[in-house]
Amino acid sequence: MAQRFQSVFLRAQSESEVNGFISRHLQPDEDFSSSCGVAVDRLVRYLHSVQTELPIKVRSVIKGGSLGKGTALKNKSDIDCVVFINYDGGIQTSIQAMSGPWLQDIIEEIRHSLGNWNPLPEFEVVGKTIHAVKLRYKKGSFTCDVDLLPAIDILKKGTPQQVYYAMKSLSPHLREYCSAPLVQLQVEFVKCQQPVVKDLIRFVKHWKNEYSEKVFREFAPPHARLPSSYLLELLCIKVWEMVGRPSSMDKRQGLKAVMSLLTERRHHVHRVEWSAFYDPSKYPLKATDHLSVRDPANPFNDLCSDFDAFSWNTIDYMKIKTLKAPLFDGLRMDPPWNIFRD
């Protein structure tokens, strides 16, 4: 992976040197934040202005992903925008609408509008999925990918508990259409975390970005999966909680702890979950020998459920390769970090 700076893993460094690396190279600067803000603002104003020409009425737009949660990497984060469309009906009928032609028609209308009328020349339509219109934004030297996800705000039609109750009787396929409306709870859960946690998140995401290409080139089959950014965010939060919620931490220890939580079975932490929005005991998950990380915004979403044996082996290999890097030479895992010691 091409980089503008020397890999932080290539030499032994102190805690303060790693913090300096995060500050200089991983934390978004004003230019990046401003460019992302301009892109989102342009899209929001366009979506509100075009309502007389399209059969939709936009209720609101929220930023999801790392940008909305405050965990973005400098110059490396894409933009997710959930576009809430006005819809008359309760929770069940709204979910049915999102899983049928209603949502697909809206996605196609937005794609056609942006692609054919050229109202926003700095945005290029690059495709669509069953959930989103995919765009590329380019303004000067700044480029990023943008996903527009139309949805119905089912959390405005009932409490989270009422939404989860309605989801309980749905098939896994239909539950997928509730993901976009629940993004706002994901944002709420992560955005309020302490700056020390968000910097650990950035460092762990950078680790994945740097090592994934090497691992797939040397070891992993093409279909192997690596942890998503959201899964890494949640593991960083859990590690911070497990070591007593410190106001500062050595990010080298934090990264090693995250890798340990992902790969080691002897910590007896087979399930990571929270009770911020629901009682996990009311929504049993399938038992597994591997780590299970439940989405705090969605009791039915195990973020590790798609990992097969090849994926777990790839993650193990990635950890082994990482710990051979000079950055970890002589690193001690003294209490409270000793719970993650190999």
From TrEMBL:
Gene: LOC106172491
GO CC term (a single one): cytosol
GO molecular function, one term: double-stranded RNA binding
Gene3D superfamilies (alphabetical): 2'-5'-oligoadenylate synthetase 1, domain 2 (1.10.1410.20), Beta Polymerase, domain 2 (3.30.460.10)
Family: Belongs to the 2-5A synthase family.
Xref: SUPFAM superfamilies: Nucleotidyltransferase, PAP/OAS1 substrate-binding domain
Domain 2'-5'-oligoadenylate synthetase: 163-328
Name this polypeptide is given: 2'-5'-oligoadenylate synthase 3-like
Species this protein is from: Lingula anatina (Brachiopod)
Stretches assigned to the Polymerase nucleotidyl transferase domain: 49-88
Record-linked PANTHER family: 2-5 OLIGOADENYLATE SYNTHETASE, C2H2-TYPE DOMAIN-CONTAINING PROTEIN
UniProt superkingdom: Eukaryota
